[in-house]
Amino acid sequence: MPESPFPPLERRDRAGIEDWLDRLVSENRFTIAVVFPAVGAISLYASAMGWYPDPVSFMSFNPWFILLGVIVMRLPLVAGLAPLVDRRAAFALAAVTAYAFGIEMLGVSTGWPYGAFEYGIDLGPMLLGLVPIGLPVFFFPLVLNSYLLDLLLLGEKARSTSVRLLAVIATVLLMDLVLDPAAVGLGFWMYEGGGAYYGVPWSNYAGWVLSATVSVVLFDVAFDTEALFARLRSCPFMLDDLVSFVILWGTINVAFGNWIPAGFAGLFGVSLLVTDRFDFDVRDTIPGAGWVAPPKSD
């Protein structure tokens, strides 16, 4: 019988649950960060191309399948940040959530600030028929992954609020230059009148300057910078969600022939290698492939 991917829950208090999440992600890094986005990319592209035959046509853009896959890929981010969430952080994250829903509803209803757009498919259950209920698990990682990556890349310079803010805004825009063309290609959403950049208008990126600024300010309120630095350095999987992003959206852009966004995805891949965030040290977490791991010295 295959070994369960779920470690035992040894304690039911907060510290025990945080430890369980750490072990769950650590022991399944390859599955979470590589297998899930790879399968997701294939499934989403097959859905867009109409390749699912009738017996399994229910899998085509299945909203629950999409939401489940996204939640699994977010586990490294959740496990990494969980020990740092106190009451102040909870209020700040709630404020980011409220902002995400508010600005998205405003965008769908009025076209401001991202440009006039509408969802082409349901990305999970929809709130008031306008935006996905799971919006925070789509919205948060764009800014959080950018925030964490820039802390690593900038080092001591990231302690400056102005440097950190400008760097994260630029990184969020670069991430959206990868994400939006692929999402438009899949039909996740569409912009009225299209746009110059693979069907995306430049107004979308102006809107993301606003959203990134608000989010970075709230994340600064939420987390103590020194504690975040320390956790980031001690938690090897904290940016694994960015690995998933590179694989999922990079692959979909390549499939659609969106070479500029695919190239930007490659830049994020290089940044992960430069910061030593994801390498072949995860090979012993490949299911059934423990034989590829070198013997550990005593």
From TrEMBL:
Q: Which controlled-vocabulary keywords does the entry list?
A: Membrane, Transmembrane, Transmembrane helix
User: So which domain of life are we looking at?
Assistant: Archaea
Q: Name one Pfam family in it.
A: Caroten_synth
Q: Which segments cross the bilayer?
A: 30-52, 64-84, 91-114, 126-153, 165-190, 202-223
Keyword check for Protein transport, yes or no.
no
| Keyword Ubl conjugation in annotation | no
Q: Which NCBIfam families match?
A: crt_membr_arch (TIGR03460), CruF_Halo (NF041333)
Write down the PANTHER family for this protein, in alphabetical order: SLL0814 PROTEIN
- What protein does this entry describe? Carotenoid biosynthesis protein
The organism's taxonomy opens as: Archaea, Methanobacteriati, Methanobacteriota, Stenosarchaea group, Halobacteria
